[in-house]
Specification:
The structure holds 2 protein chains of 2 kinds.
Chain A: H1 3-9, H2 11-16, H3 22-34, H4 36-54, H5 62-74, H6 96-103, H7 107-180, E1 184-190, E2 199-205, E3 210-217, E4 225-233, E5 236-243, E6 252-257, E7 263-270, E8 282-287
Antiparallel strand pairs in A: 1-2, 2-3, 3-6, 4-5, 4-7, 7-8
Helix pairs in contact in A: 3-4
Chain B: H1 9-17, H2 21-43, H3 46-62, H4 74-92, H5 97-105, H6 108-111, H7 123-132, H8 135-145, H9 151-158, H10 162-180
Helix pairs in contact in B: 2-3, 2-4, 3-4, 8-10, 9-10
Classes of the chains: A alpha+beta, B mainly alpha.
Chain lengths: ~290, ~180
């Protein structure tokens, strides 16, 4: 950058007015060292502004000078003894402090405000105590409510269990009655050669020809399979129905009716039963005695 | 208050460095109106300006060693202290830009506020200068010099493009130079 360029750039005016950035100021100061004409231009511009400032001079109150001379006399400073602003008593007190006085309420009004404040405080304390009391009550109530609900729940489960047992007992009684009936014939079906451990029993009422089945020992079938009871009438298998396993297996299960039969057998078939028995899957078989 | 004694610039600097109270008194008598004018112009608050002026002269006394003749005239240095101290106070008051502008608009010199009591001797001369600067030129110089506004702030305050601030300020100062050199 050449001196004339800097002088005509407007940078000097900005610098003098305090509008240059730190970087710009440093650049210009460097240029002032390098070019005396730049330094002179800066000085001229400075003087112009100073002239402008001087034209706006205002005489300060006399009291400041007396105060200042007193201060520098009391604190005969050398450059290393610092004086903080707090050490310098302020000449003038600005008005905010006085204004607060204006704002403060007159005495008579103050009394009534005191009463209101006291009443409010008492009410607040009362409210806090009551809140505490009711909160505790509420907490207690909440505990009882939880207990009540869990009791209700267990009560329900007990009732349903009881019902379950009742049905079970009824069924067992029914089974017992059938088994103890002298008109009912008992046909034991031991395991076949393929399934020697399997055992089941048929109860056959000779009066109404109703057939019942009791599982003594049969393995649980796969989900898609079901056991089926067959009656062998005159050498031909007759479907007597499929039956359930699981919990039901311990009870006497009502099957179909048959007037005649020489033999009973159980095979494992697809779910729902088959039209004719799968002989390889015969688990138990028993002949009618006599 | 030894008005009969006059000092050269070098003697003043030397006296200040030596913490000569007579020199200090002389500096005060000769420069306090100019410095007070700056502080009042920056703060537009008389009560505060008194405190700040006192602070300014204590700084001059305390930091005399920091003055370096190579960097400019003693008056320039003192002026900068006054201006910077006052602008610091202005900023610490957390003045918003709007208030700065308000202060410029309410300028005592423009509409003759309560400060007329302290009117300077040169007021007639100043009026002549004011007449020849446009209001915008005065506001530009004042916002930059007295209020420490940045170019961005001036651009917003006067609603002129940022790039124009520089040119117009330059023109304002050139105009000022022409008036003063007449």
């Amino acid at each position: 950058m050449d001196a004339q360029f800097i002088i005509s750039s407007g940078l000097i005016e900005l610098y003098t007015a305090g509008l240059t950035s730190e970087k710009e100021s440093q650049e210009l100061e460097a240029a002032m060292h390098q070019y005396p004409e730049v330094a002179a231009a800066v000085a001229t511009c400075q003087r112009n502004l100073e002239e402008y400032v001087k034209l706006q001079s205002v005489s300060p109150p006399e009291s400041i000078k007396i105060r200042l001379l007193d201060l520098i006399h009391t604190y005969p400073l050398t450059s290393d003894t610092a004086i903080t602003n707090a050490d310098i008593p302020q000449l003038t007190k600005t008005s905010p402090m006085e204004q607060t006085n204006v704002l403060s309420v007159p005495e008579t009004k103050g009394v009534s405000w005191k009463w209101i404040a006291a009443a409010a405080a008492v009410l607040l304390i009362g409210s806090v105590i009551l809140n505490f009391f009711y909160f505790n009550r509420w907490k207690e109530f909440r505990e009882y409510k939880d207990k009540y609900q869990s009791l209700l729940l267990s009560q329900n489960s007990i009732i349903s269990k009881t019902n379950e047992y009742k049905t079970r007992l009824e069924k067992l009684t029914e089974s017992m009655e059938i088994m103890e009936n002298p008109k009912v014939m008992k046909v034991a079906m031991p395991g076949t050669a393929a399934f020697p451990t399997a055992v089941a029993t048929v109860f056959w009422n000779q009066d109404d020809k109703q057939v019942y089945l009791k599982v003594n020992n049969l393995p649980e079938p796969a989900a898609d399979k079901q056991y089926q009871l067959w009656a062998i009438v005159d050498g031909k298998p007759v479907d007597m129905g499929v039956f359930e396993m699981g919990d039901t297996a311990s009870l006497l299960q009502k099957m179909k009716i048959t007037g005649k039969a020489q033999m009973f057998a159980v095979t494992l078939e697809k779910k729902g039963g088959a039209v004719s028995p799968t002989m390889e899957q015969m688990y138990v078989a028993g002949k009618i005695p006599g | 208050m030894d008005y009969h004694v006059t000092y050269t610039e070098a003697e003043l600097v030397q006296g200040l460095h030596a913490r000569d109270q007579k020199v200090f008194s002389f500096l005060y008598d000769h420069y306090s109106p100019a410095l007070y004018g700056v502080v009042v112009k920056v703060l537009n608050d008389h009560a505060q300006a008194v405190d700040v002026l006192q602070d300014v002269f204590l700084k001059i006394w305390r930091y005399a060693d920091q003055y370096n003749e190579d960097k400019g005239r003693l008056f320039t240095w003192m002026l900068n202290i006054a201006r910077n101290t006052a602008i610091d106070v202005l900023r610490s008051k957390a003045y918003k830009l709007e208030q700065k502008i308000q202060n410029i608009t309410d300028d005592v010199h423009l509409n003759g506020g309560p400060l007329t009591v302290y009117q300077s001797i040169d007021h007639l001369g100043f009026s002549k200068v004011l007449d020849k600067l446009t209001k915008e030129q005065r506001t530009l110089i004042d916002l930059a010099y007295y209020k420490g506004c940045t170019q961005e702030e001036i651009s917003r305050a006067l609603d002129i493009p940022l790039g124009t601030v520089k040119t117009r300020l330059r023109n304002a100062i050139i105009q000022l130079r022409n008036i003063l050199n007449k």
